[in-house]
Amino acid sequence: MSQVPPPVPPPAGAEPPPVAAPQTQKKPPTPALIALAVVVGFCFIIMIFGALIGDDDSAGTQDEVTLESGENGEAVNAAPVVEQVDPKVEYMAMIDRELESLSSYKTDFGQDVAVVEVIIQAAVFNVWAGMINNAQNHDLSDEELAKVRKMAKDVKRVQRRDFPKIRKAYGDALDRKLWENDIDVKVRGSRSTTIEVVGALFAANRNIQDFQTQVRQDWKALRFKRSQYKWFDLADEYQYYDFEGANDDDLLSFEDEGLVKVEIP
Predict the structure, then answer these.
(1) pLDDT tens for residues 236-264?
(2) DSSP designation for 62
(3) Positive or negative, the Cα torsion across 234, 235, 236, 241?
(4) What sign does the dihedral 164-170-153-261 (CA atoms) show?
(5) Distance between CA 211 and CA 220 in Å, rounded?
(6) Contacts by 184-192, CB closer than 8 A, 24 or more apart
(7) Model confidence over 86-101: pLDDT tens digits?
């Protein structure tokens, strides 16, 4: 059997051969990094897509560009013609659509509706009031004004019918939300205009005031007339706040200064 010859030693004074660095296996990216990369990439795609959509939209506002012949017979682009939309025509078309919608409008809530969903539903009436209020910005004929007044009448009718239901749904949703904090919420009254909050937290007046400050605007927008606080359910004494707010059939529009009562034109 042949033997393997021993390694030849390097000559004297020669530098030893370089030693290869140990290779380390790269760790795969973590799910968090993958998610971050996906989010960043997705945002980048949205930015690009938005820019493309924006270009398409801006182009869509112009009529088709016609070609004209130049001095040398070459086709040149004529100035684009922008279609002008009469604001009053657009406004009355919107009024017609909302009138049709109001004829069959119903406020319905699921069993586990969230607080924010109820508030959004109530805000629909404020949007309608804003549309009605916008009539003053147009020179409307008697016939057109009659349509706006018809819409105002229909909105007031639906508000009277649905706001008690909205307040009751809000109370139930808030009760579910605050259950973990050992706070009970009840809505009382023939038209559900009183909201009662019960919990040991409200044995302290400061807690009552802090809570009232946080929810006051929402409760006022929902047309509650009173809020009252007890520290336990059978307490004879309780703290309360009265709201000098709007009635169920008042039209309130979102304006810079907040909710403003709308006068029917």
Answers:
(1) 999 999 998 899 999 999 888 788 999 98
(2) B
(3) negative
(4) positive
(5) 14
(6) 184/233, 189/225, 191/163, 191/164, 191/248, 192/164, 192/165, 192/167, 192/168
(7) 999 999 999 999 999 9
